[in-house]
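Bumping with the actual sequence this time:
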Amino acid sequence: MNWQLARQFPSLVWIMILGVFFSRGTFFMVWPFMAIMLYQKFNLNEWQVGLTMTLSAVSAVLVGFYAGALTDRLGRKTMLITAGVLAVLAFSLLAVADQVLLYAICMTFCAISREIWEPPAKAIISDMLPSSEMREMAFQLRYFSINVGAALFPLAGVWLGFSGQQHTFFAVAAVYLILLWVVWWGFRRPSSPKTATASIVPLRQILTVLKQDKLFLLLVAANTLVAFVFAHMDSSLVQYLSREGLDNVVQLVGTLIFTNGMTIVCFQFVMVRLMQKRSLTHRVQVGMVLLTLSQLGYALNPVEWYWGWIVATFLLSLGECVLFPTMNIQIDRIAPPNMRGVYYGAAAIYSLGFAIAPYIGGLLLKAYGGPALFLCTSFCCLAVFVLYQQVRRAERQALQLSDGPLENQG
């Protein structure tokens, strides 16, 4: 990685990179413990907890697609401010909610605010950085910031006694309030984008373009399965451990989240250096091998062996630090310049994997138990390998038809 490139980033790009450190950090300090809160506060069973989390996430994904289109129509600033205001209100209400229905509504708006935020934040990085090398560096740094926050904040929350406490949602709301002010300041800087993308594409044409982009559709399908597998760490695994009667389960969950974040902090750029001469498809294959091993580890690990959970999470995290930045780079390379917001919004459909995982995971946990669930996710990993074989064929066909941006994918 060429760190000299980072010095050339405009201030608004740095806001998009560093803002996620604080917002996602405080988010991860409380959200992974949501399953425990719903179980302890309202005595919901596995599938009820999963259904509650899934409905909120599915609603957010459906909104996220249109948020991407609106990003190109209304402008990046408008969408970021809207997402920030919604997050402040939702997390504040979540801190005082005392009914299941209110919890579910607030969780839905929290998830929607995140889906609205993501397309314009990523589009700003693509808009303001001229070269693909600079954009790749920015996306790597952004993901690095997310995981530094994910590593430090949950562990700090456990040490301070905040994790698993409802009032901690006020901290998330406060961080988003500060972030709103910083974003407003960033857009007043001379280098900030002043308007939305000049070329406005009608929604019908957007759908037609996306439908015809076979490579994009294959990537979304594969990434949806990847997201489905990863999501079980924050939902189904937490439920599994909390219902097995383990001592200090909150501390164990906090340790796993810390392991996840710190592994990425320590190894992300090591993996980038190792993978830099490989094609994006090959990077994904390496990440999927690691992810498959982690799921087999979760399936076969004895419940009481804490180190087994930590080792499996370490393998999952190594796979994650390869896979998720690569997803953003893939979309950046195939998205037309006047439809970046659209492509990032549509690519967020892969979040359906995150959305349905808690419900399906809850059903499988209740019916068959944890080992069977993680054997199923292992088979999902194999399905991703099959899809990426199709992605490679689609890339070759695109290269034969055009000299467009895909030629740099190797």
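The tokens above came from a reply further down the thread. The CA atoms of residues 291 and 316 lie 5 Å apart.
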